[in-house]
Fold this sequence. Notes:
This protein is of the alpha+beta class and 131 residues long. It has one domain. Helices cover 34% and strands 17% of the residues. The protein has a 3-stranded antiparallel β-sheet, with no helix packed on it. The chain has a two-stranded antiparallel sheet with strand order 1-2.
Amino acid sequence: xxxxxxxxxxxxxxxxxxxxxxxxxxxxxxxxxxxxxxxxxxxxxxxxxxxxxxxxxxxxxxxxxxxxxxxxxxxxxxxxxxxxxxxxxxxxxxxxxxxxxxxxxxxxxxxxxxxxxxxxxxxxxxxxxxx
Length: 131
């Protein structure tokens, strides 16, 4: 029964991701932002004052492979990662679990609020994955 539940969950997750990713702008409409080396990443919701650094390889002018992408706003690190990062990650590599919490920052944290709900969500998810 547990494997059937996992299969149903995986099917639902893939369908949800397909619907969500389908709403992202097509490649010819995508805005790009480049680091100081000229290495570009997608930026479908550009803001004035944004900049990035990319620690990984750059292939044909685009970030490629593994690396750390950092977003800066007016020269300061932006801890509110753009949703475009999640879409980019979801489009590549192996299947993933992801959860988006509206109005929250990295790992679902909300400024000025307790991290206890986030710790509970992540702990339950880890226990499920490791069992």
